[in-house]
Amino acid sequence: MAGGDVGTGLAGALVTVLRPVLGDSVAVRDLHRLTGGASRTTWAFDAVTDRAQALILRTGPADEVHAGMELEARAQQRAAAVGAPVPHILAADDSAAALGNPYLICGAIAGETIVRRIFRGLDDAGRDRLLRQCAQALAAIHRADPDGIGLIPADPLAEWRERLDEMGDTTATFEWAFRWLEANRPPPTPPRLVHGDFRMGNLIVDDSGLAAVLDWELVHIGEVYEDLAWFCIRAWRFGAPEHLGAGGLGSVESLLSEYEAAGGCPIDRAAFRWWLAVATLRWGVICRFQAERHLAGQTRSVELAAIGRRVCETEWDLLELLEGRGPR
Questions:
Q1: What are phi and psi of 83, to 5 degrees?
Q2: Which residues contact 81 (CB under 8 A, 6 or more apart)?
Q3: DSSP letters of 73-114?
Q4: Is 36 in contact with 28 (CB distance < 8 Å)?
Q5: How does strand 103-107 pair with strand 52-59?
Q6: Which residues, 6+ apart, have CB-to-CB distance to 4 below 8 Å?
Q7: Which among 19, 82, 101, 102 has most CB atoms closer than 10 A?
Q8: Where is the Aminoglycoside phosphotransferase domain (predicted)?
Q9: Is there a contact between 240 and 231 (Cβ–Cβ < 8 Å)?
């Protein structure tokens, strides 16, 4: 089916989906596919009634890795209820009957997601403000009630051990890291709602700072350290210097202090560094997995091959962390 035919058919199906929410007179205009989105397809469009409302459609097949669309929606609504900046959800369905795949429809949020453009527009005060807002958003997310919406607990160390074993390939650094982390695991902390992929690139930033937290498909129940540490690995600094270890915005200590000041739970710095090593190892396994997709012929891609070359970068970072060095 040609691209125009797909768009026309999808627009008609969207009208049917939106009528119970926006009324029988709703029409869909300017439907177009957006770039980006590794696991799901994103479309932008206007829903027109007595006014035009800019909306976003995310759609894609169900899988065993990502949360279902209805679960994503419920998690975002719980986070919104305690003040986290998230898009307004209009509809979500795990069934493929209406649109050919499960879907989620939400309000469009104006702003920028491309990190290098965000960085170019920030001075020191702007970076400080955005870092503080990220800490406040995480504190709000972690206050949200996770009960009764279908979230399941996850142990990231066990998860990434399993992912690496499934590939049948490893490195000496990865193996040492897994053994060290298992032997030095800090005591568990109370389970909370965890975004799972909170980082630069999954945030919308406007002239006032953080406008919305996106991409909730890895949401689960876990420890707050997981989100905080993931924000601070080298990859999500996007080339910013090491002293801006928290998302390229400020120091790791600044993030943790702002998080505590925003009402987040007290953060044990030694436990955080353990979780930072877990997050770094997670990224290393992801890099190896992406390379395998290319090498095995599953998805031939120069981009995937290039990501695979970053395995050695994560090994270096792991060695630094496990020897007591690394970002602070």
A1: 100, 5
A2: 144, 145
A3: HHHHHHHHHTT---PPEEEEES-STTTSS-EEEEE---SB--
A4: no
A5: antiparallel
A6: none
A7: 102
A8: 31-247
A9: no
In the block, residue with structure tokens 């970053």: 310
Q: What averages of pLDDT result for each successive group of 10 residues across the chain (328 residues)?
A: 63 96 96 76 96 96 91 98 97 96 97 96 97 98 97 93 90 95 96 97 97 96 98 95 96 98 97 97 92 76 83 94 74
Check: CB of residue 87 under 8 Å from CB of residue 111.
no
Domain ranges of the chain: 3-107, 115-322
Q: Check if the beta carbon of residue 312 is closer than 8 Å to that of residue 234.
A: no
* The length of the chain, given as a count of residues: 328
Q: CA neighbours within 13 Å on the CB side: how many for 84?
A: 29
Which pLDDT belongs to residue 10?
95
User: Does the domain at residues 3-107 carry the CATH identifier 3.30.200.20?
Assistant: yes
CA distances from 244 to 70, 192, 239 (A): 36, 27, 10
Give the other-Cβ count within 10 Å of 267's Cβ. 19
Tokens of 280: 């770094």
CATH topology of domain 115-322: Aminoglycoside 3'-phosphotransferase; Chain: A, domain 2 (3.90.1200)
Beta bridge partners of 212: 204
